[in-house]
Amino acid sequence: MSAPTVHASVVVIGEAGVLIRGASGAGKTTLALALVREAARDGRFARLVADDRARLTAVNGRLVAEAPEATAGLAEVRGLGVVAEAFCPAAVVRLVVDLGAAAPRSPEPAELRTEVEGVPLPRLQVAGHDPGGLMLACQTVLRMLSHAGCGGSALAFAPQHEKLPLPAPSAPLFRSIRDGTPRDDLDPERKQACAETA
After folding, report:
1. Does residue 122 contact residue 111 with C-beta atoms inside 8 Å?
2. For 114, which of 29, 33, 87, 123 could close a Cys bridge (C-beta 3.0–4.6 Å)?
């Protein structure tokens, strides 16, 4: 039996999955597509994983996100309807972005972390329904992913098993952006799946 789905969008930038949660109309799809577009413009691998609904599963201490089969490769864009997008079938989530009514000005340390399916993850809170806030969130997320390991908020973008008290998986799901390999040097199965959907 497959895991139930949650109301969220997911993208993958390099090897890092970004889980975007929020109420209907908060801007999940807008932020997801902006992240993919801006990362691709910078020459980074970027794909939609899931829009509006995502299946989340804990695997060896990591959170894996997938699109439900019925919506894989589709995004619902306000004013346009359902559109086809290049996608990857799965990603290991490294960051949770919560779109809400208001983001705290100076979040407490506990507000910078969350737990999903028993997996602790870094969390970024962003005011939803605000195009300026969503674009700022897009820039912030991409900057954090670009400078993994350079500061407090970016800690989480190193492989989780290096920074958290979690067991290291015996067979990593995806290569790390920190192991010195080019960002487009993906796991062969994932590379093939992404090429087939592009």
Report:
1. no
2. 123
DSSP for 102-122, written as a single string = ---SS--GGGGEEEETTEEEE
- Please list the alpha-helical segments (H only) found in 76-151: 131-146
The type of residue at 179 is: D
Of 126, 127, 128, 138, the closest CA to residue 41 belongs to 138
Closest CA to 168 of 15, 58, 61: 61
Distance CA 174, CA 96 (A): 18
The runs of H, that is alpha helices, within the chain are 28-41, 131-146, 160-163, 188-197
**Distance (Å, rounded) from C-alpha 61 to C-alpha 161?**
8
DSSP, collapsed to helix, strand or coil, labels residue 51 as coil
The Cα–Cα gap between 76 and 67 comes to: 14
Residue 35 phi, psi dihedral angles, 5° rounding: -60, -45
Torsion of CA 156, 162, 166, 172, to 10 degrees: 100
pLDDT at 128 exceeding the cut of 50: yes
pLDDT of residue 158 exceeding 70: no
Residues 22, 146: Cα–Cα separation, whole Å: 24
For position 189, what pLDDT does the model report?
53
Residue whose pair of structure tokens reads 């390999």 in the numeric block: 181
* pTM of the predicted protein model: 0.73
